[in-house]
Amino acid sequence: MSSDPFNLFARCLTKARNCGLAEPTACALATASADGRPSCRMVLLKDHGPDGFVIYTNLDSPKAQDLKENPRAELCFYWMPLKRQVRIHGTVKPVDEATADAYFASRPRLSRIGAWASRQSQPMKTALELEKNVVAVTARYGFGKIPRPENWSGFRLLPESIEFWVEKPFRQHHRVIFRREGEGWIKERLFP
Ligand SMILES: Cc1cc2nc3c(=O)[nH]c(=O)nc-3n(C[C@H](O)[C@H](O)[C@H](O)COP(=O)(O)O)c2cc1C
User: Is 0.85 surpassed by the pTM of this model?
Assistant: First the structure.
């Protein structure tokens, strides 16, 4: 097994991309408020490597509020066809503006419109409310450039530990955790 957890993660994700999953980058993001109330939801990983693991969201959403109050978070991937789980624990920092702008510009036009139209996690009186917002945003920008909303950006999770779990027969699963130590990583096996 590689001694570089980023390399190992990249190899797992490549395998996941090659096994026909609809959303191989889907992962659960666990956060906690300043007073310790946990919450967890699915997000899509948009970048990864030694600089961290990047997700994007609405900055007024409950998850973003949690991350502002308490930057500790965990991402958990489970790729059922591979029988593998990866957990990435660390602290987040905001993605810089230029990176967020570049990623936003790469999204399909309707997704960019959606980012303006959805007040993520706010109560919506009728289903029509979202559709009306989509129509209004579409009319506002016409065929012009759609800028990134100020309240839409990303977080970069800087890992302190990355754990790989691989299913084995009779619950004798393989678990290896990499813990950051200085510039390097300490690798340790765990009981399953
Ligand atoms: C497969 C999947 C991927 C998702 N990806 C994202 C994402 O990348 N960013 C996001 O803000 N919400 C994403 N969502 C929606 C979130 O799970 C969640 O419902 C929403 O962000 C509101 O979360 P919050 O109220 O905890 O902030 C995704 C949902 C699913 C099922």
Answer: yes
